[in-house]
From TrEMBL:
<comment type="similarity">
    <text>Belongs to the GreA/GreB family. GreB subfamily.</text>
</comment>
<dbReference type="Pfam" id="PF01272">
    <property type="entry name" value="GreA_GreB"/>
</dbReference>
<dbReference type="GO" id="GO:0003677">
    <property type="term" value="F:DNA binding"/>
</dbReference>
<keyword id="KW-0251">Elongation factor</keyword>
<dbReference type="InterPro" id="IPR001437">
    <property type="entry name" value="Tscrpt_elong_fac_GreA/B_C"/>
</dbReference>
<dbReference type="Pfam" id="PF03449">
    <property type="entry name" value="GreA_GreB_N"/>
</dbReference>
<protein>
    <recommendedName>
        <fullName>Transcription elongation factor GreB</fullName>
    </recommendedName>
</protein>
<keyword id="KW-0804">Transcription</keyword>
<dbReference type="GO" id="GO:0003746">
    <property type="term" value="F:translation elongation factor activity"/>
</dbReference>
<keyword id="KW-0238">DNA-binding</keyword>
<dbReference type="InterPro" id="IPR036953">
    <property type="entry name" value="GreA/GreB_C_sf"/>
</dbReference>
<comment type="function">
    <text>Necessary for efficient RNA polymerase transcription elongation past template-encoded arresting sites. The arresting sites in DNA have the property of trapping a certain fraction of elongating RNA polymerases that pass through, resulting in locked ternary complexes. Cleavage of the nascent transcript by cleavage factors such as GreA or GreB allows the resumption of elongation from the new 3'terminus. GreB releases sequences of up to 9 nucleotides in length.</text>
</comment>
<dbReference type="InterPro" id="IPR023459">
    <property type="entry name" value="Tscrpt_elong_fac_GreA/B_fam"/>
</dbReference>
<dbReference type="InterPro" id="IPR028624">
    <property type="entry name" value="Tscrpt_elong_fac_GreA/B"/>
</dbReference>
<dbReference type="GO" id="GO:0032784">
    <property type="term" value="P:regulation of DNA-templated transcription elongation"/>
</dbReference>
<dbReference type="InterPro" id="IPR022691">
    <property type="entry name" value="Tscrpt_elong_fac_GreA/B_N"/>
</dbReference>
<dbReference type="InterPro" id="IPR006358">
    <property type="entry name" value="Tscrpt_elong_fac_GreB"/>
</dbReference>
Length: 158
């Protein structure tokens, strides 16, 4: 990885909770089901066995990914931000476009981004354009729909 995987404490907790649930609960139950299904005889037509093995591979792949992301994570608490006048990681920003349409966005780690909830990843084009912006700054960003200009209306931190 060439850049740090910034993440909020809540985002890290969510990754860890998913890892723990898969590793401690779902995976052992699945292994038990597979062992039971294997004991039933012909495995080529045994749906429990075939589906169980497929699901086990999916869980193991997800556990590996979660493990790598947690190992590379750099937990940053936005509440500890000293310069609250500029947009940095964890900031909640109110922006307005040329048509005065306002949006409220929170810059979070890429693993916890959810555009529907207004959480945009730290490395998203709009987040990169907003980094370091202060109240009243104009920032131009190239989005899939074309180039847009946004004005920073408000910057807050938790």
């Amino acid at each position: 990885m060439d850049r740090p995987n910034y993440i909020t404490p809540a985002g890290y907790s969510a990754l860890k909770a998913e890892y723990d649930a898969l590793f401690a609960t779902e995976r052992p139950q699945l292994v038990e089901t597979i062992a039971w299904a294997a004991g039933n005889g012909d495995r080529s037509e045994n749906g429990d066995y075939i589906y169980g093995r497929k699901r086990l591979r999916e869980i193991d792949r997800r556990l590996g990914w979660l493990s790598k992301r947690m190992k590379a994570a750099k937990v940053v608490d936005p509440a500890a931000q000293e310069d609250r006048s500029r947009v940095f990681f964890g900031a909640t920003v109110t922006i307005a476009d040329e048509d005065d349409n306002q949006r409220v966005l929170t810059l979070v780690g890429d693993d916890e981004a959810d555009a529907g909830k207004g959480l945009i990843g730290w490395n998203a084009p709009l987040a990169r354009a907003l980094r370091g912006a202060a109240l009243g700054d104009l920032r131009r960003v190239t989005l899939p729909g074309g180039e847009r200009e946004y004005e920073v209306i408000a910057v807050t931190y938790p």
